[in-house]
Design goal:
Layout (H helix, E strand, L loop, with lengths): L1 E12 L12 E6 L8 E3 L10 E13 L5 E8 L6 E9 L1 H4 L5 E9 L5 E13 L12 E2 L6 H10 L7 H9 L8
Parallel strand pairs: 7-9
Antiparallel strand pairs: 1-4, 1-8, 2-3, 2-5, 5-6, 7-8
Protein name: C2 domain-containing protein
Pfam families: C2
Length: 184
């Protein structure tokens, strides 16, 4: 059975500041699979938002199959000129949405760093739109939602952002063991 999944990405709070100069320029990406080439959708980038950001943006994922797609994966990234940087991520079990009244859920979800530590919170409204319907009725009250650190999601991000997964001590060791070349 396919339907649509509507996600309203409201805001995030308590994000880690990953910028060396200035403030985070965050955007959020959502997907239903952890494969390296999985389809994803994203919000607009909010320049100089810092640790707290508001998007208030609706995303609709067509062809949502609730029998085979059980988790919504959320990634908060910092827009950079060359390579974007991972801020935090989470996996949201969709069973809490499917079992909610009207198959709609409004909640705040913990975000995680690549080492599994909690860092920040993202606020989402998630609703299932059955085939032939238009919009879900989203609840007004916000509750603490279930989210978790998924190792498969972490592995996906490790492939996409390898520089961020090198421990600082290891990076320093790599730099100090590089041969020094003097210019003549």
């Amino acid at each position: 059975m396919t339907a649509k999944l509507q996600i309203t990405i409201h805001k995030a709070e308590g994000l880690e500041d990953v910028e060396r100069f200035g403030k985070n320029d965050p955007y959020t990406r959502v997907l239903l699979d952890t494969g390296i080439h999985s389809d994803s959708q994203r919000t607009k980038t909010i320049p100089n938002a810092g640790k707290n950001v508001s998007w208030e943006q609706k995303i609709i994922i067509a062809d949502f199959n609730y029998k085979t797609q059980h988790t919504l994966f959320v990634e908060v990234l910092d827009k950079e000129r060359h390579d974007d940087e991972l801020i935090a991520f989470t996996g949201i079990p969709l069973q809490q949405v499917l079992s909610a009244p009207g198959q709609s859920f409004r909640g705040r979800f913990d975000l995680y760093k690549h080492i599994g530590n909690k860092k920040g919170v993202i606020f989402l409204s998630i609703g299932v739109i059955p085939s032939g319907e238009t919009d879900p009725v989203l609840p007004g009250n916000e509750v603490q939602g279930q989210s978790q650190f998924y190792s498969a999601h972490n592995e996906r991000l490790k492939q996409l952002f390898p520089k961020q997964y090198v421990p600082d001590g290891e990076l320093l060791a790599r730099i100090s063991t590089q041969p020094h070349v003097r210019e003549a």
